[in-house]
Amino acid sequence: MDVRIKPRPNKRIQSFALLFIICNVQIGIGVFGFQRYVAREAGHDAWISVLLAGLVCHFSGWMILRVLRRYESADLYGIHQDLFGRWIGGALSIVLILYYVIVTVTILRTYIEAVQSWIFPEFPTWLLAVVLLFLSWYAGISGLRVIAGVSFMGFLVIFAFSMLYYNPIQYGQWNRLLPIAEASPYQLFNGAVAMGFTLSGFEIVFFLYPYLKDKEKSQKYMQLSMLLTNALYLFIMIVTTIFFSQDQLLRSVWSSINMLKIVKYPFLERIEVLAMGVWMFAVVPGIIILTWVISRGMRRLFNFEHKKVLIIFSIGVFVVSLVFHNRQQIDMLNNLISKMSLIISFVYPIILNIAVAVVWSWRQRQANKGEGGSQHEQTSN
Amino acid sequence: MNKLQIKSISVVIMLVLLSGCFHSNVLERTSISVAVGYDKIGEGKIQTSSVLYGATSKEGKESSQVITVEGETSKGARLNLNQKLGYKVVSGQIRFIAYEGELARDGILSIVDTLSRDPSYGDMMYLAVTEKPIRDILAYKYPNISNVGNYLTRLIAHNIEDSWVPSCTLHDFRNDFYSAGKEAVLPIVERTNNEVNVTALALFQKDVMVGKIEPEQAVYIKLLLDREQPESLEVKMQKDGMAKYVKNVHHPFETIKTALGNLGSKSSIKLISKDELQFDIHIRMNVELQEISEDYDFTEKGAVQQLETELSKQMSIDLLNALNQLKRLKSDAVGFGEVYRSSVRNSRLTKDRWQDMFPKAKFNTKVTVNLIRTGTIE
Amino acid sequence: MTTANMAFSDIASYLKLELNQLLPNCSDLVVHGINSSVAVCYVSGLVDTKVLSSSILSVLTMLDEDEVNTELIRQTITICEIEREGNLDQVALKLLQGHVYIAVLDEYEGLLCNIANFPTRAISASENETVIFGPVLGFNESLSSNIAILRSYIKDPDLVTEPHMLGTKMETRIQLTYMSEYVDQQYVDYVKSKLKQIKTDGLLGNALLVQKLQNHPYTIFPLMTLTERPDRTVQALMEGKVVIFMEGDSHVIIGPSSFIDFFLSVEDRYMSWGTGLFIRMLRFIGLMMSVFLTPVYVAALTFHYQMIPPALIVSLIETRTKVPFPPLIETLLLEITMELLREAGVRLPTKVCQTIGIVGGIVIGQAAVQAGFTSNILIMLVALAALGSFTTPNYLMGTSIRLIRYPMIFMAGLWGILGIVFVAMVIFIHLLRQTSLGRPYLFPIFPFRGKDLTVDMLLTPRAHYSYRVTPTKSGLKSNETENNQQSDTASSNSSSSNET
How do B185-192 and B126-130 pair as beta strands? Predict the structure, then answer.
């Protein structure tokens, strides 16, 4: 496996596409009910936690791109091999792949759970899983450009639906935000930690980076994308806080959808039914991108063919998602994932930065000492 | 398109077809309920009356059908309801739910929570309370009302929009129930002969109805709640300083009655002392005069100002009375607790604590009336 | 010929014998001996008889029989396109293309004169793509007159017309046309390489050529525009697109096209900005209504009754109670009736068409409701949906739009709103996968190009004074930087060579 990859020009995408790909992976399904986890920790100051988590997110994104810039055109699988060698690096990559498999299952299963609790209680889980996986397979076989296109649509859907939250604002009571910063820093920190899973996902830039055409703009669009995500989360958190009373919020599993129940138009009522269905546009891109990341990994590590991986993976995810029967299990899954995602999205970039600094300076010293180590010397150029 | 793709697509199409049609709610093959009423009959037994869209109507009029069943829980009653009907009862179109006073005095949380738990119920349906059994309201054959469920919904909706009834949707009720410093209010609906009307407001402590408040006072609560505003209000005051502006006195009078059109009001509630629990309540109103019971001479200098002062004075007294009524019933329908919670740091306010504190609160009320015009004549 | 024709006293009978072997069963072949040493042959009907008699036959009869030779004939007859040809196989082929062959006794080579005059119709107004105002002229089936029309608009050496031949039997002539200065060379190369790959007897029209040029043979969407309007063609050329003319087809292919192009009409630009924009937006609303209106009806009535506002639900229940079918069947029934009406209207002569309108309006509309077959509201929705699809300026696209409604209605009946979204997503992904001459089909939307999108959708006034959106080439410019640099140089080369 080469550390650096040079995809053909027609397989590359513009950095501009990061704007909606990252937004989509970050928002997806987390937006349905993240509020109560944050509010449980930070009360009515949850929005400060969301803001804090957002800032950390920007910092993390900057760290990720710092690592990637040093390698010019490598993905995380390659970086792993370069830093930790073939075996340890490979093992880390496999752990990552497994993590993304579980994330995919979580996204899939949570959306199915939401659909079942809001529109179709008797919609068979397996059928909806087949539908979603079929869509992601269909887009996945057509390459990164189509994936970016689907994300673009998801992006539009997400921001079109955020307009609907204008109505709940009118029912809001702004004094619920007062007194500002009542929660202790520790509570705010806990709230920010609870935002972790919701905000994670931006680390997929680790895998997209080599496929970007204009890499110098990647930082700009990635930060912009995270800014949009954070703004959306902050907006929804504030609307939720002023709309629900504290205890009511803690009892709502799907607060974001609950708020849509009050939106009505002369020709259409109960927007939440519509929103739930159309949200498929926002969920599928997330699944597709993660599928692509996994399939890339399988190709880089074991040289599997992309289309075959897609089929095998789809069947695998399908089987795994059927294991989860009730909401307790899904919640358990979410909790498990949220801890892992905190580490992978926020802590791991820092570790990588340190590792890169240490390994590269060590190599430098080695190179200075003797003429040996030429192999690494070449790669670092 | 290679073979693999064709295969997978056909597999998916087959699965889709095999899955077939699952549980559907075809519009005309369901009994669509528009209003539900809960009566208490005996210990632990609930009588549910349901207004349904008439399944078979030949004329162009909307018709309705009322079915009454008994059950231990509201869901149990619904099961019994299905046994009486040709089609399955669905609840997605319910827009009005009423509880009998008896039931409301015992607490209605379990029924309200049932409504929120089931996603098919909307959040914008209106809740109300009745003094007499609801069955009498719903099952009565009105000569002028074709579907009493829809009628009641319209009645409440328009009263919320234009009159003294504060918003009383399911969302509002739960919102107040779960908030530390505010109690819910629901309108009381009564039938008199062939008419249905809203007579008063039911005040709650948590989910238990503790008393009621008359429209004249309820209008001030609505002014303080500050979302929708009453379109008009009546003020009755002593003649006092106004006597000199009244011309053509044919009969002796003690009071002057006025009807005011509300052109926009702003209210502010401030906590001025957290230890003594003292609140400053200030309502600023722009009004136009719609009716006055005496021949009042507006052309004279100072007449308008005098009327404004008297109105302000009288209204602040009325406001205080309304608030004292709330205090007596220990039901904080306005949300002073929320003001307290948001102004006092680390208050750790809970519903129970506020219930003890609320009767000790002191109110300084002030109403500023700004008479914009006196209609098209002076 | 010198030795072979010794046996015959005159050239005419020799030619007749030889050509009859080469073109057996060709009854319209005429071999006409002027005298014993000169003969003329042609295929009747393919040549311009006026020119034949005035410029060839009259001259030939004047010549002295003994002194005649080809050089002399060549100098005397007044035809511009003359060539020498001795190979009778070639001669036979040329005769079928409308040439006249003049053979002289004792000479190996005869003369081929091109006075072809294939049957064609006069240039008339475009019938299928009508506009209220703006030029009404339409192309006809003659390639040369179509190119002439084009040249009357663009009098510039940049206009490249490359001839190609297609088909082994029918020998269809096509012309690849583009503005060498504006066009993106990669589209030209794409078309050329595709044309080379085509193996066929011949193509009956440009519509068939479009199918050969696209990558996905199974898509239901037209991937390239077919038009018979010169103004639209000229506009496309000015935007840097490639245009393909075909002999015998009044439609020309414009490529690359994107999904949005099919909803735009040249007329929009003839109107003022506001009205043009209004009509363009109306068409997109029509598209949305056409695709989603009836599926939403099915979904709402089958599963999501709670989404219907109270004012509507009462009338819906009333009309629906009499209908014996579930909404899905009811809607499919009415939609198919609608399609039948449309199809019948197309197939029947124009005069009978009006009767169809009455049958459709009265019988289906009134009677179906009274018989309790459908509800009033559905009839209105189906009619609206049909109207929406008819506003699409391009007929092929209008048909595709109507077609995608059926899976949507079907899935809406099975899975409600999820079914609609599912089908919408499949179609969206499908559209994303399509390319037109290598350019993504959903071009200005994705890959997103704000400038092109505003010009296309909002008709920003800029569109009135400049044809091209991006300075030289719109399209995939930034997608393949390396390729583009090559094509840049290539196109500049070609344009410079054109000028010299």
Answer: parallel
Q: How far apart are CA B365 and CA B313, in angstroms?
A: 10
Classify domain B215-378 at the CATH topology level: GMP Synthetase; Chain A, domain 3 (3.30.300)
Give the integer Cα–Cα distance in Å for A359 and A365. Answer: 10
A-contacting residues in C 281-310 (Cβ below 8 Å): 303-304, 306-309
Flag whether A273 is in a domain. yes
Q: At what angle do helices A46-71 and A218-243 cross, to 10 degrees?
A: 170
Q: What is the rounded CA–CA span in Å between residue B110 and residue B130?
A: 18
Q: What are the structural domain ranges in chain B?
A: 30-213, 215-378
Say which CATH number the domain at A299 has.
1.20.1740.10
Cα separation, A120 vs A47, whole angstroms: 32
Among A68-72, A326-330, B371-375, the range of highest mean pLDDT: A68-72
**Residue A370 binned pLDDT confidence (cut-offs 50, 70, 90):** low
Q: What is the DSSP letter of B252?
A: -
- Least Cα distance to B74 among B105, B52, B45, B54 occurs for B45
Decide: B64 and B53 in contact? Cβ < 8 Å. Answer: yes
Report whether pLDDT(A378) > 70.
no
pTM above 0.80, yes or no: yes
The pLDDT value recorded for residue C423 is 92
* Alpha-carbon gap: A349 to the closest alpha carbon of chain B (Å): 37
- B34-71: b (≥16 Cβ within 10 Å) or e: bbbbbbbeeeeebbbbbbbbbbebeeeebbbbbbbbeb
Given a contact cutoff of 8 angstroms between Cβ atoms, the answer to whether A32 and A256 are in contact is yes
Which of the pair, A189 or C446, is modelled with greater confidence?
A189
For residue range C387-437, what is the model confidence (pLDDT) as tens digits? 888 888 888 888 899 899 999 999 898 888 999 999 999 999 989 888 888
Q: Which residues of A touch B3 (CB under 8 A)?
A: none
- Name B291's bridge partners: B259
Residue C295 scores a pLDDT above 90: yes
Residues of C in contact with B153 (CB under 8 A): 310
Q: Residues of chain B whose pLDDT is less than 50?
A: 57, 59-60
State the smallest CA–CA distance between residue A132 and chain B in angstroms.
11
Rounded to the nearest 5 percent, the helix, strand and coil shares of chain B are 35, 35, 30
Distant-in-sequence, close-in-space partners of B49: CB < 8 Å, separation ≥ 6: B36, B37, B39, B66, B67, B68, B134, B135, B138, B139
Domain count across chain A: 1
Q: Do B26 and C317 touch (CB under 8 A)?
A: no
For residue C490, what pLDDT is reported?
A: 38
CA distance A310 to chain B (A): 12
DSSP C367: I
Judge contact between B178 and B349, C-beta under 8 A: no
CA dihedral B274, B275, B276, B280 (to 10 degrees): -10
Kindly report the length of chain A: 381
pLDDT digits (tens, 9 = 90+) for B211-228: 888 888 888 888 888 677
C203: left (phi over 0), alpha (psi -120 to 50) or beta: beta
Question: Which residues have C-beta within 8 Å of that of residue B316, sequence separation ≥ 6?
Answer: B365, B366, B367
Can the peptide bond before residue C447 be classed as cis, meaning omega within 30 degrees of 0?
A: yes
ipTM of the complex as predicted: 0.90
State the angle between helix axes of A46-71 and A76-118 in degrees (0 to 180), rounded to the nearest 10: 150
Whether A34 maps to a domain, the answer reads: yes
- C102 vs C85: CA distance, rounded Å: 10
Sign of CA dihedral B231, B234, B239, B243: positive
- Looking only at Cα atoms, what is the longest distance across chain B? 101
Q: Which of C297, C302, C303, C305 to mutate to test the interface with B (most CBs of B within 10 A)?
A: C305
DSSP 8-state class, residue A31: G
